[in-house]
Amino acid sequence: MPLPNEQLVLERTSAKQRVYEAVKDWIIEGQFRPGEKILDKEIADYFKVSRTPVREAFQMLETQKLIKSYPGKETIVTELETDHIEELYLPMATLQQLAITLAVEKITPAHIRRLKDLSAAFSEAVKEQSRPMPILKADKDFHSCILETAENEYISDFCDMLWIHIQRLEYSFFRDTPLDDSIREHESMIQALEMRDEYSASILAKEHWDRSALLIRELYRKN
Asked: How far apart are CA 157 and CA 148, in angstroms?
């Protein structure tokens, strides 16, 4: 079970969350590969914490189907869901389309400024495409801002459940595929929101996620 060379020091009060975030990212980026066995003791030693926050983090990861524990035996990283791409992207596209429609009614100049800043951050992250994690996070920040503007916690919660698995699929895509279209699509969605054009915003959001699903499907078909 290879761990990164650089050790992280955690605050006691946030150990569970910090372990969870780190291991989640390692699974997304393939540091921990599908089917690989992971050990709570090794991770506890790495972070210099007890096994308790690690086991709590493992429970969170298992709830999100990133790992599978077999009591008394082992804990392994789940396989990539390359056979279920539509099952992830279809509900995500529908939820994002609904969210941006709701956001049109509630958008403010402050929201628009925030979205423009996040779009610029995504564009900046894309310049270092060999480092997909900052790109993935910048992309999520952009779309999460729209979700927050929609002010519907159920949509946000459902999207969060889907996002981690989509990020696992998109890691290689963001590393190896030109992302100019994604940048333009983000900017077009901002323009539609700024104009309070509900129809265009809805169509743009759906096309954005449908295109992502198509490209991801093609990527894994080739592999």
From this structure: 11
Q: Are 1 and 46 in contact (CB under 8 A)?
A: no
CB 74, CB 162: distance < 8 Å: no
Assign 179 to helix, strand or coil.
coil
- Asked whether the predicted pLDDT for residue 198 surpasses 80, the reply is yes
Tokens of 118: 């996040």
Mean pLDDT of 169-192: 95
First to last CA, the chain: 24
Fold of 12-77: Arc Repressor Mutant, subunit A (1.10.10)
Domain 85-222: state its class. Answer: mainly alpha
Mean pLDDT of the chain: 92
Residue ranges matching CATH 1.20.120.530 in the chain: 85-222
Residues forming CATH 1.10.10.10 domain(s) in the chain: 12-77
pTM above 0.85, yes or no: yes
Burial 80-114 (b: 16+ CB within 10 A, else e): bbeeebeebbeebbebbbebbebbbeebeeebeeb
Gap between the Cα atoms of 115 and 100, Å rounded: 12
Determine how many CB atoms are found less than 10 A away from the CB of residue 174. Answer: 21
How far apart, in whole angstroms, are the C-alpha atoms of residue 160 and residue 191? 25
Placement of tokens 């941006």 in the chain? 100
